[in-house]
Amino acid sequence: MGLLEATREALQLLFAGDPELWGIVAVSLSVTLRAMLIATPLGIAAGYLLATLAFPGRRVLIVVTQGLLASPTVVVGLILYLLLSRHGIFGELRLLFTQTAMVIGQVLIALPVLVAFSLAAIQSADPRARETAIALGASGPRIGWTILFEVRFAVMAAVCN
User: Fold this and answer.
1) Cβ contacts of residue 27 below 8 Å, gap of 6+?
2) In angstroms, what CA-CA distances link 58 with 31, 48, 53, 54?
3) Distance separating alpha carbons of residues 97 and 40, to the nearest angstrom
4) Three-state SS across the chain?
5) All residues at 6 or more sequence positions from 21 whose CB lies less than 8 Å from its CB, including other chains
6) Alpha-carbon distance 102 to 24, whole Å?
7) How far from the centroid of its chain's Cα atoms is residue 10's Cα?
8) Is 85 exposed, middle or buried (0-12, 13-18, 19+ CB in 10 A)?
9) pLDDT tens digits for range 29-85
10) How confident is the model at residue 13, as a pLDDT?
11) Which terminus, N or C, of the chain has the lesser number of Cβ atoms within 10 Å?
12) pLDDT one-digit tens code per residue, 80-94
């Protein structure tokens, strides 16, 4: 079967309303949505903290995060498999081959991207926005929201990536 024939058959099943195919699509969308709902706030918060706070080990965390951008998804999947398999550290949880395991895998793959892109976006923000917020008496969280609002398009690019 050629690529053109397979594509045509897949589209026919899709538009015919094949319940099994639509069930698979629903599971895929559900897993992706749940993973992004978990990874997005964590990644943006981690990126913000790495961009704005000075602490020991910060540079190492940034390098590790950027290094994780190059990790193949297959490696992440294999490590997750080893951890969740029956003889793995988390084998007792019996999560292997479940939607929860797929969500965990997608979160692990998405987090470095979200952190790195958020970090870059926040570091590129105009420093006058932070200074202005401080001068106007904004609280710490309000300053954070102001900076994130200034770089919202770059952060959304990270989320949509």
Assistant:
1) 99
2) 32, 12, 8, 7
3) 24
4) CCHHHHHHHHHHHHHHCCHHHHHHHHHHHHHHHHHHHHHHHHHHHHHHHHHHCCCCCHHHHHHHHHHHCCCCHHHHHHHHHHHHCCCCCCHHHCCCCCHHHHHHHHHHHHHHHHHHHHHHHHHCCCHHHHHHHHHCCCCHHHHHHHHHHHCHHHHHHHHHC
5) 13, 14
6) 13
7) 29
8) middle
9) 999 999 999 999 999 999 999 999 999 999 999 999 999 999 999 999 999 999 999
10) 86
11) N
12) 999 999 999 999 999
């913000």: which residue's tokens? 48
Tell me which residue of 123, 111, 106, 101 sits closest to 64, measured CA to CA.
Answer: 111
Cβ–Cβ < 8 Å for 116, 59? no
Reading the block at residue 58, the tokens are 């910060």
